[in-house]
Structures are given as structure tokens and as C-alpha cells.
Specification:
Elements (H helix, E strand, L loop, with lengths): L5 E5 L2 E2 L5 E5 L2 E5 L7 E9 L3 E11 L25 H20 L20 E9 L2 E7 L6 E3 L16 H16 L14 E9 L2 E8 L7 H9 L4 E8 L12 E5 L4 E5 L2 E5 L9 H17 L4 E5 L5 H6 L5 E6 L2 H13 L6 E5 L2 H14 L4 E5 L8 H10 L3 E6 L2 H11 L3 E9 L9 E8 L1
Length: 457
């Protein structure tokens, strides 16, 4: 097998990236946009010692779970991976991927619950970050084609309640359309990554309650014709705040920290399980409100039913989950290394009336966790730890600190089954895995959120 070969293959399983997997003379071949049970004609794109990659030329025998994608540019856009698969089957694939990661790391089978969602499979994203480009002399927005930085412009809306990208809702599209009209009428140019020239880089918008935070990211110090854009956004009939992000660095990082409020409120108020939090453009929030609230409520209810007295919220950020957990626990400690986030957490704690119940600690979790655990053991307090790390999982030092802290229970919220499984294998000697529950935070994509509940042996 070599690059350029045309092969007819049978897809025998699914991979972790949502792709189909075939074998040629014992060698694994990954084929995106295919699924188990299909026969396909492919072109080999890459061959190395361990595996090969190929792209589909034609689906010779589709399986019964293949559907026509709702999005007309799905096969050209790099935004989502699974729109060609029936939703029920998507959930089965995600569950199987979680099971496979756990088996690989722990060398035994772990019972995994069925994947749960809130029923909203399109229009669920509360935030979009879209690159801008000039096509045929017009400023357009879209997503990058897979494995490139070439923008695939959005098409027309296919459903009245959705945006041109079916992952977000109509109001977000109204904001984007108003901005594109302004940009073209103003004759603005777009950023060129290779030459580091041009102005418009990204359009970013987040829906917070019934309001929208709109951020224009540009390679410059000021957004021109600001009043024209304010008028265009106002004409949508939507409530909004407008910001300009000056990102003049030669980088693929979307937003800088140099953000200026142009119009509206500096921070918008979000309701997360009854906790009313102020959200800025740089605040981290899960992109699916409904499933995020499901996870937070389920974790809080589990803590309440297990009778945990005190909870330590590691990776606590701006304190949103910390204050949600305060409804179920006797006391909650939040540990966060970013001072600005801790300041926001203190403000939120005060506004929620939790000043007696919640303590926010600024520092490295690897250092603060063992010290706090020693204090709680001296006071003979039963305590648990909630982990909600970034995609790369827990730092090794944090896991070492967790093992030395010896909490009675651990609740691990993960957006990456592979790093979750890796970390659970490290904790496996000391903790029993009571449950593993996946949630469909990202319908139509390969991604899955998972909550693991552990009890000290």
C-alpha cells in the first residue's frame, strides 16, 4: 500500500476521531466520514509504519445508519464530524469510545452508562468563533476546511430557527449577518496569516441569557466606523454588548487580552443552575447550556446523596460550579491559580450569599490541596474533591497531591475520554470506580463529556 492507491475497503469499526477503520493486510487504515458496516472506495493519502489514512471517493454500500447531513457544506467544512450518522448511532459510537479508552488504560472492562443529552441536537452552541476572509471581493465568514486554514464560507440557512451553521441558533446569525453587511459597506479587508497584513481576523459571539456578547477581533488598535456597526446590530432587535479585541500578534490564538468595550454592558449575566454569574468575553463557559446544567446538577445531587460534608473544587475558575455545589455541601473550597479568576469567584460568592459557605483559594492545586486536606482531617471532616480539568487532563503533580490528600470521594468531569482514562488508571489503586456517565455536550461531533464517580477503597 502506498500513497495514491485506489482501494475498495470494508469499514469494520469506528475510531476515536469519529472516522471509520479498515484493515489492509493487517495494517489499520483510518477513513473519515465512514462508519462500521460500509464498503467504500478510497484514495490513500498517507502511509506510515503504524497506520494509513485515506479519503472517500465513493460509498459503495452505505449502512442503514447513514443519513443526509442537514448542513449543505458538511463534507467540505471542518466544524463537525458526525452529521452523516443517525443521532442514535452517534451516541452508541461515543459510548464505545469511552469504553475503549477505559479498557486500554485500566486493562479491564468498566461499566459505562448510556450517553445522555438534553434533546437539542442542532442549534445548541452558545458561542461561535469564526474566521473571516475575502471571497470574490466580499468579506465572508465560515469555518476552516479540515486540516487547513482555508475558510469555507457558510451557505444559506436551512431552517428558520438555526444559523447558517446548524450548530448555533438564529440570533447568533442575525448578529453575524449585520456585521458582514457593515464590513462590506465599510470596505474593510481581512487578515492574511502568511503576510501578517489585513485587518479583520475573527467574529466571536456568545449568547448569555437573552443577550449577545459580540467581539470583533482585528489586526489593529481600533475598530473603524463603530457607530455604523452599533446601528447595524441594533437593527436586528437583539440586546447586545460590542467589544473590539486588538490582536496584532503573528499567532493563531484567536483572542488577545486587549479587549475594549464599545457598547453595552461590560459583563452579561448568565444563569447556571440558579447561580447568576457575570460573564466577560474571556470567561470560560461550556458551549452547551442545557447539558452543562445537567452535569452540574447531577454532580451536586450525587454529592448530596452521598452525604459528603465538605467539597474541594479543584480547577475552580471563576467559581460558578463552586457556588452550584454550595447548595448541596456543608462547605466548599475552590482552588484556582489565576488571580483574576479568584477575584471574580469572590465577587460571585458574595453576590450568591455564600460568603460563609464558600472559601476561594488562590494558588497551585498541587500545593494547596494537600495542605487543605491536612486541615480537614485534623478537624475530622469528611470531604470529597471535584476535578474539572482542561482537555489535557490533570497535571501529574495534582494527581500526586490528590492521592496524598486521600479524599473520601472524587468526582471527575472530563471533556477527553483518553486523558480521563489515563488519570483514572493512576488513581485505580486507591479508588473504586462507582460510575462512568457520558454526556452529549457536542452533538454531531466526535467529542463527549464524561463524569466519573470514585470512592476511596
Amino acid at each position: 500500500m502506498k500513497k495514491g492507491d485506489i482501494l475498495d475497503l470494508e469499514i469494520t469499526s469506528s475510531g476515536m476521531e469519529g472516522e471509520g477503520v479498515a484493515r489492509v493486510e493487517g495494517q489499520v487504515v483510518f477513513v473519515p466520514l465512514c462508519m462500521q458496516g460500509e464498503k467504500v472506495r478510497v484514495m490513500v493519502r498517507e502511509v506510515n509504519k503504524k497506520f494509513a489514512r485515506a479519503s472517500v471517493i465513493k460509498v459503495l454500500e452505505p449502512c442503514e445508519d447513514r443519513v443526509i447531513p442537514l448542513c449543505p457544506i458538511f463534507y467540505r467544512c471542518g466544524c463537525c464530524d458526525m452529521q452523516h450518522i443517525k443521532y442514535r448511532k452517534q451516541l452508541e459510537i461515543k459510548k464505545a469510545n469511552v469504553e475503549a479508552c477505559l479498557y486500554k488504560a485500566l486493562k479491564r472492562r468498566i461499566d459505562v452508562d448510556d450517553v445522555r443529552g438534553d434533546g437539542l441536537v442542532f442549534g445548541y452552541r452558545n458561542k461561535i468563533q469564526v474566521p473571516l476572509a475575502k471571497v470574490a471581493g466580499k468579506v465572508v465568514a465560515g469555518y476552516y476546511k479540515g486540516n487547513t486554514h482555508k475558510v469555507v464560507p457558510f451557505g444559506e440557512r436551512v431552517r428558520e430557527d438555526l444559523g447558517a451553521c446548524v450548530m448555533y441558533e438564529r440570533g447568533m446569525q442575525d448578529m453575524l449577518d449585520a456585521f458582514l453587511n457593515y464590513a462590506n459597506e465599510a470596505g474593510l479587508d481581512c487578515y492574511d496569516e502568511e503576510r501578517h497584513e489585513g485587518f479583520l481576523r475573527h467574529f466571536v459571539a456568545r449568547k448569555v441569557g437573552d443577550k449577545y456578547a459580540v467581539v470583533i477581533v482585528g489586526n489593529g488598535k481600533k475598530l473603524p466606523l463603530q457607530k455604523s456597526l452599533i446601528k447595524a446590530l441594533t437593527n436586528t432587535g437583539r440586546k447586545f454588548s460590542l467589544y473590539f479585541d486588538s490582536n496584532t500578534k503573528k499567532t493563531n490564538v484567536i483572542m488577545s487580552s486587549d479587549i475594549t468595550l464599545i457598547y453595552g454592558e461590560a459583563r452579561l449575566e448568565a444563569d447556571v443552575c440558579g447561580v447568576r454569574a457575570k460573564v466577560s468575553p474571556l470567561s470560560f463557559m461550556q458551549i452547551n447550556d442545557g447539558v452543562r446544567d445537567m452535569i452540574y446538577r447531577d454532580v451536586a445531587e450525587r454529592i448530596k446523596s452521598d452525604g459528603e460534608g465538605t467539597v474541594i473544587d479543584a480547577y475552580s475558575g471563576a467559581g460558578v460550579l463552586t457556588n452550584v455545589l454550595a447548595k448541596s455541601a456543608k462547605k466548599v473550597y475552590g482552588i484556582e491559580i489565576v488571580p483574576e479568576a479568584v477575584a471574580d469567584a469572590d465577587e460571585l460568592t458574595k453576590s450568591c450569599g455564600n460568603a460563609v459557605k464558600v472559601v476561594n483559594i488562590c494558588g497551585d492545586c498541587a500545593q494547596k490541596l494537600p495542605l487543605l486536606a491536612d486541615k480537614l482531617r485534623e478537624e475530622r471532616e469528611k470531604f470529597s474533591v471535584v476535578l474539572d480539568p482542561p482537555r489535557k487532563g490533570c497535571d501529574a503533580k495534582v494527581l500526586d497531591a490528590l492521592k496524598s490528600a486521600k479524599p473520601d470521594a472524587v468526582y471527575y468531569i472530563s471533556c477527553n475520554p483518553a486523558t480521563l482514562a489515563r488519570d483514572l488508571a493512576i488513581l485505580d489503586c486507591d479508588y473504586e470506580i462507582l460510575s462512568v456517565s457520558p454526556y452529549d455536550m457536542f452533538p454531531q461531533t466526535k467529542h463527549v463529556e464524561t463524569v466519573a464517580c470514585l470512592k476511596r477503597k
